[in-house]
Write a structure and sequence with these properties.
This protein is of the alpha+beta class. Helix content is 37%, strand content 12%. The protein has a 4-stranded antiparallel sheet, covered by helices on one side. A hairpin with a 4-residue loop joins strand 3 and strand 4. It is elongated, with a radius of gyration of 19 Å.
Length: 137
């Protein structure tokens, strides 16, 4: 009986730790993907002096985040796209060149990072100088 109780306690401690580790690994994978795609977008810009219209234009149309969803990309080189840019807590756009992000584990998002649905998004901000969870920006 004591052995069963000890095993039960160990399982109760191990399962949340495993889930936390798995979530951190998915977040790190999304950050690495965003950084890698940013390098390709920047190389495309350097070669063509224009941003790609979509991720398909650089061969990344089928790239999925660790939660199975497509990465979101928005070039900010047109006035209509600038109005849809991601914004920080002061409602200032995060980037001046393009937005690239994952909607995170909950699959929800909103333009301002202060929205509850955006807090778990994995974002690129400051023109690539920050890549990570929106709640840390």
């Amino acid at each position: 009986m004591l052995a069963v109780a000890i095993v039960g306690v160990l399982i109760a401690v191990a399962v949340p730790a495993w889930d936390g580790w798995r979530d951190r690994m998915k977040t790190q994978k999304a950050q690495a993907d965003i950084t890698a795609v940013s390098v390709v977008i920047d190389a495309h810009y350097a070669d063509n002096n224009t941003l790609p219209a979509s991720l398909a234009a650089i061969g990344r149309a089928n790239l999925r985040d660790p939660w199975g969803r497509e990465y979101r990309y928005l070039p900010l080189n047109t006035p209509q796209n600038r109005g849809h840019a991601r914004k920080d807590h002061s409602l200032v756009p995060l980037n001046t060149d393009y937005d690239l992000y994952s909607v995170g584990p909950d699959g929800g998002t909103a333009s301002p990072l202060t929205a509850r649905a955006s807090r778990d998004d994995i974002i690129r901000a400051n023109n690539g100088r920050f890549v990570g969870p929106a709640k840390l920006y």
